[in-house]
């Protein structure tokens, strides 16, 4: 089943094999012209990442359930505390230290989404739907 891959400053493309997706993901950097990617399936659900290499934030939109989730790790990769901000083409994204993923984590999650299999057991999901439902400031 083909999915649509969208990346900053690139035209959306249909992807039918995972190797192409992985190549795109590994080219991401939190600075520069390509700092986020989105993989969307046929029902409008998607997985998206911002940042790159060792500073990624990963989110999942479950369209039918109306949920927006953010990935986190029960054992964080980083040793610092307090909110962090990833500055990328999608804007400034604030996240907790346990929400900082490495690109290998992201590739594994995108593969699971693409293959419609279970996500890796080390990745947990935090419901962020309230953020999307919040009214915009005047």
Question: Would you kindly provide a written description of the structure presented here, covering whatever features stand out?
Answer:
With 138 residues, this protein is of the alpha+beta class. It has one domain (3-133). It is 20% helix and 35% strand. It has helices at residues 18-26, 103-115, 129-133; strands spanning 3-7, 13-15, 36-40, 46-52, 55-62, 67-72, 84-88, 91-95, 124-127. It has a seven-stranded antiparallel beta sheet. A two-stranded antiparallel sheet has the order 7-8. Helix 1 packs antiparallel against helix 2. The longest helix is centred in the last third of the chain and has 13 residues, at 103-115. The protein starts with a strand and ends in a 5-residue tail after the last helix.
- Give the terminus-to-terminus CA distance: 42 Å
Order of helices and strands: EEHEEEEEEHEH
Instruction: Tally the helices.
Output: 3
Q: For the CA atoms, what is the radius of gyration?
A: 14 Å
User: Spatial order of the strands in the main sheet?
Assistant: 2-1-3-4-5-6-9
Q: What portion of residues belong to β-strands?
A: 25-35%
- The shape, in one word, is globular
Portion in helices: 10-25%
Sheet having the most strands? 7 strands, antiparallel
What average pLDDT do the residues reach?
A: 90
Multimeric state of these chains?
single chain
- Main structural class: alpha+beta
Number of domains: 1
Give the uncertain stretches in residue-range form: none
- Give me the count of strands: 9
């Amino acid at each position: 089943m083909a999915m649509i891959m969208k990346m900053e400053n690139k035209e959306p493309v249909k992807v039918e094999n995972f190797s192409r997706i992985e190549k795109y993901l590994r080219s991401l950097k939190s600075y520069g012209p390509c700092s986020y990617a989105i993989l969307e399936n046929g029902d409008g659900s998607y997985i998206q990442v911002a940042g790159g290499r060792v500073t990624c934030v990963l989110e999942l939109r479950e369209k039918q359930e109306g949920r927006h989730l953010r990935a986190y790790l029960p054992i964080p990769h980083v040793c610092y505390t307090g909110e962090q901000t990833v500055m990328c083409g999608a804007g400034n994204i604030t996240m907790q230290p346990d929400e900082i993923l490495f690109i290998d984590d992201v590739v594994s999650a995108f593969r699971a989404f693409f293959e419609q299999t279970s996500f890796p057991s080390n990745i947990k999901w935090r419901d962020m739907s309230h953020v999307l439902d919040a009214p915009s400031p005047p």
